[in-house]
Design a protein that fits this description.
This protein has a single domain, classed as tt1808, chain A, CATH 3.90.1570. Helix content is 33%, strand content 26%. The chain is globular, with a radius of gyration of 17 Å.
Length: 218
């Protein structure tokens, strides 16, 4: 059974579900990219660990490497709630990305978390509102951001993944990756949609979630 939400499911931000979701989303993206980028590249899952309070966190992310020399070409970083809610998480996340940028790699931030403050500090003035985003920073133009957005009421976006400078981008459908992850993990059986989500939401988002759940329950 699919999620009752058109795009991302905010219930997955719950502490007991997120690590499972992030792990399997990384696997889905790794498999998807492996089928797209060709034999010139290898696509791997890596991790970073950090301590926040008395709890150790593990974030998994996806990295694309050139097979010829092992060079990191593109990092796809899946933002976790702990990344946005704790100083240790923010620092660990930024360290991972800075190391990638210093090596000349491109970085893709996949932010499917409603809680906390954004990790990227670019101005949002004049831009439309969004809840979720994939933001691309190319190794060739690290000062520029390509932003692919969505809201709670819309499907997650497709986004471009930069490869080597002499090769065309590949495109990932984030909604397809989410849906496959949700189905493969059986989250429909793990989430009780008769209850409200336990994660804190803005008032307007809580109303949107309530509308979706009301329709599912009717």
């Amino acid at each position: 059974m699919p999620s009752p939400f058109v795009g991302m499911d905010p219930f997955l931000e719950e502490e007991r579900l997120w690590p499972w979701f992030q792990h399997h989303l990384a696997i889905t993206l790794q498999r998807t990219l492996s089928s797209l980028v060709g034999e010139r590249y290898s696509v791997e899952i890596s991790e970073r660990r950090f301590q926040a309070g008395n709890k150790e966190h593990c974030d998994e992310y996806v990295s694309i490497h050139a097979k010829a020399d092992g060079r990191l070409v593109t990092l796809l970083d899946i933002v976790s709630p702990a990344d946005k809610l704790t100083e240790a998480g923010r620092a660990a996340c930024k360290d991972t990305r800075q190391a990638a940028k210093e090596s000349g790699a491109s970085v893709v931030e996949i932010d499917l978390v409603l809680q906390g403050e954004p990790l990227l500090g670019y101005s949002r003035e004049g831009l439309p509102h969004w809840d979720y985003a994939a933001t691309v920073t190319r190794g060739t133009t690290p000062e520029r951001y390509e932003i692919y957005t969505s809201t709670l009421e819309k499907r997650l976006p497709r986004f471009r993944v930069p490869l080597a400078s002499d090769e065309r981008d590949t495109v990932v459908n984030l909604q397809d990756a989410f849906s496959q992850t949700y189905d493969d993990c059986g989250f429909a059986n793990e989430i009780d949609y008769r209850k409200d989500p336990t994660v804190p939401l803005r008032v307007e988002l809580f109303g949107q979630v309530a509308d979706v759940l009301r329709e599912r329950r009717s």
